[in-house]
Design a protein that fits this description.
alpha/beta; Rossmann fold; globular; five-stranded parallel beta sheet; 2 domains; 45% helix
Length: 373
């Protein structure tokens, strides 16, 4: 994406359209207008500076309301937020996958409690944590905002309340409206004040674009590559087109107290190699976490497997089962067709189901199915 450092996200969006790098969509443009308004508000805003403001003796400037942008997969939410973030006038800003943010929060809370235990003090970690986070970034942009973990749900209200009090502005993208966050979760009634707080501090926008642009791109590209060399150039290009970004960072998932790192992740798209996911001691819980987190996945380097690779074959079957059950769109490179990957060895008969699913996952009917997070 080259439309950077313009006057605002609306100008950046229109520049992409004019350069024919992006197709104009009225629903997307409406969201870009709202992002542009926030951009202008941030340009004029300053956090409380003077002593009187900090002590509450003088009226501090009104903190701009953030934005919570939700809509179906492939509508361009993350791309629009990236245009906003790249052109945001604040140097104190951070863009992060919401899952990675919460992992960092829990790690900091754990470290704080360990320090407190050694000192013999009894203190609440939320206030100092909010202070540190606000000092690191006054603008927080969250991709893939979703709440499924009970531990996350229980601390969000208090943490975000303290961050908002310190002038933090939040922009988030999500596949769910705020009222559906943590839906069906344990003790959800305790989570409802956070939803109310989020709606108070952020304008809620529904990006109701009629077309799934990611699905359209998937339909125009090969999704099963045979015989691609180890460079992964074609797979990297597939990731770039599907995620809509030139560069991506690793993301770490927490699985039953362990950390699983996915090499590249952005905008609901993940990328990893067969070796990273199937030659390591991973199990169904790891693959379930991947399937729940990503709506599209790029997997490279699937080799032909023999009897000596039965463990790798078993893990590969578990991975494909998880992706299939959650209707994750899959782009894969392999040394052979699905029928030729694992012909001999323990479980080769059961592998036939994996072959069938790999074939079905290439069909337009499967591609059109919504992701099940």
């Amino acid at each position: 994406m080259n439309a950077k450092r313009l006057h605002g996200p609306l100008a950046a969006y229109r520049a992409l359209v004019a350069a024919e790098q992006w197709e104009r969509d009225p629903a997307q443009e409406q969201v870009a207008v709202q992002l542009d308004t926030l951009h202008a508000e941030l340009t004029r805003y300053h956090a409380p500076r003077g002593l009187k403001e900090r002590l509450g003796l003088a009226r501090p400037p009104e903190v701009p309301r953030g934005l919570y942008i939700w809509g179906s997969v492939g509508r361009g939410k993350s791309v629009l937020m990236d245009l906003f973030y790249e052109n945001a006038p604040w140097p104190s800003k951070k863009r992060v996958h919401f899952h990675a943010f919460m992992l960092d929060v829990h790690a900091r809370i754990f470290k704080f409690r360990q320090t407190v235990q050694k000192s013999g003090k009894d203190a609440d970690p939320i206030k100092p944590l909010a202070k540190d986070l606000a000092a690191e970034a006054q603008l927080l942009c969250f991709d893939e905002f979703q709440v499924t973990d009970t531990a996350d749900a229980m601390i969000l209200q208090r943490l975000f309340k303290k961050m908002f009090e310190r002038g933090v502005v939040v922009v988030a993208t999500s596949n769910r409206p705020p009222d559906d966050l943590y839906k069906g979760g344990l003790n959800r009634e305790l989570f409802l004040p956070f939803i109310a707080l989020l709606k108070e501090k952020c304008r809620v926008l529904h990006l109701d674009a009629p077309r799934d642009y990611r699905l359209e791109r998937l339909r125009t590209m090969p999704v099963y590559h045979v015989g691609i060399d180890g460079s992964g150039t074609a797979l990297n290009e597939s990731f770039r087109r599907l995620a809509g970004v030139d560069h991506a960072e690793p993301v770490t998932l927490e699985v039953q107290g362990r950390h699983l790192t996915i090499t590249k992740a952005s905008n609901g798209v993940g990328q990893a190699t067969f070796h990273e996911l199937c030659a390591q001691p991973l199990g169904p819980a790891d693959y379930l976490a991947i399937a729940e987190t990503f709506n599209t996945f790029v997997l490279s380097g699937v080799p032909i497997l023999g009897p000596e690779k039965r463990n790798e074959a078993k893990r590969f079957v578990s991975l494909i089962d998880a992706l299939y059950e959650h209707k994750v769109k899959l782009v894969v490179s392999a040394a052979a067709s699905p029928q030729e990957i694992y012909q001999r060895g323990d479980g080769s008969f059961e592998f036939a189901r994996c072959e069938s699913r790999l074939m079905e996952m290439q069909s337009e009917d499967y591609m059109a199915l919504p992701h099940i997070p």
